[in-house]
């Protein structure tokens, strides 16, 4: 039984880091004319109403996208991301927030494609309702950890996979590693972007995850982390990271510039930290 619902967390600081990084990656793919495929192993529902009771209960988006949206003119590199948000909001009021599959759908070109996986019975229905009308999109009601390697190799050579589980279960960390390992065996040129939370010391598995991914990366592994609070002792997510396997050329410098601005706008008191670093250097 899956209990995690992303609507509680849509648009929070972790979503902003994830979706801003995703947008940079998609723009890089679009620099070449050849088609590519976007894969999302844990898609969620695709679009979230920030006024509904789940989002209102936590108010997390207020400290994430709502804070950033007013500074959007400072981010020319994220034009596509902000246009995707504007597409669902008729004025300056932020009511709807697009999830990763919808941001990708709006950024992709006519000859690109999307393969989206989601296991939750309600979320898959939301995903179908929100994205099902687009013929570039394939939607799969299945376990994304198995589904990602299962769908590979693709008919197109170029592609980007986002792996974004809820980490509701501790086993999710090992499941990510297994899924990436099997996927790389079938598709070692793909770009893999793994999101992970940074948690209180006792619950944090981010270092373990990175050490496992380090051993799998065929070419390189780049990590971008942003926290907005100091690490708590017992409970809570103070930040998150994106681990990118086969990171494209110059993504590191772009992410460095991006994260220093994000940190300034999302954490003006500088309670947290940001860093961009190679775990496996490009050869
Ligand atoms: C963090 S949310 C995804 C958010 C989305 N990627 C975005 O950025 O908008 C994680 C999603 O994974 C789904 N999920 C949980 N376990 C799964 C599994 N084994 N396979 C596929 N989806 C799963 C949950 O229902 C939830 O919708």
UniProtKB/TrEMBL annotation:
Its EC number is 2.1.1.266. Keywords: Methyltransferase, RNA-binding, rRNA processing, S-adenosyl-L-methionine, Transferase. GO terms for cellular component: cytosol. The record marks 4 as: Interaction with substrate rRNA. Belongs to the RlmJ family. S-adenosyl-L-methionine binds at residues 19, 42, 100, 118, 143-144, 164. It is an enzyme of class 2 (transferase). InterPro entries: RlmJ, SAM-dependent_MTases_sf. This is Ribosomal RNA large subunit methyltransferase J. The active site is at residue 164. It catalyses: adenosine(2030) in 23S rRNA + S-adenosyl-L-methionine = N(6)-methyladenosine(2030) in 23S rRNA + S-adenosyl-L-homocysteine + H(+). It comes from Paraferrimonas haliotis. One of its GO terms (biological process) is rRNA base methylation. Specifically methylates the adenine in position 2030 of 23S rRNA. It comes from the Bacteria. Monomer. GO terms for molecular function: 23S rRNA (adenine(2030)-N(6))-methyltransferase activity; RNA binding. The keyword Zinc does not apply. It holds the Pfam family RsmJ.
């Amino acid at each position: 039984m899956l209990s995690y619902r992303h609507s509680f967390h849509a648009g929070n600081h972790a979503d902003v880091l994830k979706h801003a990084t995703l947008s940079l990656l998609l723009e890089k793919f679009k620099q070449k004319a050849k088609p590519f495929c976007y894969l999302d192993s844990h898609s969620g529902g695709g679009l979230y109403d920030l006024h509904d009771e789940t989002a209102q209960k936590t108010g997390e988006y207020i400290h994430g996208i709502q804070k950033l949206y007013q500074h959007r003119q400072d981010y020319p590199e994220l034009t596509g991301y902000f246009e995707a948000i504007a597409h669902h909001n008729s004025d300056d009021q932020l009511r709807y927030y697009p999830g990763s599959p919808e941001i990708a759908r709006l950024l992709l070109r006519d000859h690109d494609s999307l393969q989206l996986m989601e296991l939750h019975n309600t979320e898959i229905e939301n995903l179908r309702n929100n994205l099902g009308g687009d013929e570039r999109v394939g939607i799969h009601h299945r376990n994304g950890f198995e589904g990602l390697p299962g769908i590979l190799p693709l008919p197109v050579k170029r592609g980007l996979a986002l792996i974004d589980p809820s980490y509701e279960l501790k086993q999710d960390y090992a499941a990510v590693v297994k899924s990436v390992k099997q996927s790389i065996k079938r598709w070692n040129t793909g770009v893999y972007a793994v999101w992970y939370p940074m948690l209180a010391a006792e619950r944090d598995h981010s270092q373990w995850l990175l050490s496992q991914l380090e051993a799998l990366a065929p070419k390189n592994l780049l990590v971008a982390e942003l926290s907005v609070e100091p690490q708590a002792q017992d409970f809570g997510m103070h930040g998150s990271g994106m681990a990118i396997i086969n990171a494209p050329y110059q993504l590191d410098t772009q992410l460095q510039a991006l994260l220093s601005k994000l940190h300034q706008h999302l954490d003006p008191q500088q309670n947290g930290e940001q860093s961009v670093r190679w775990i496996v250097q490009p050869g």
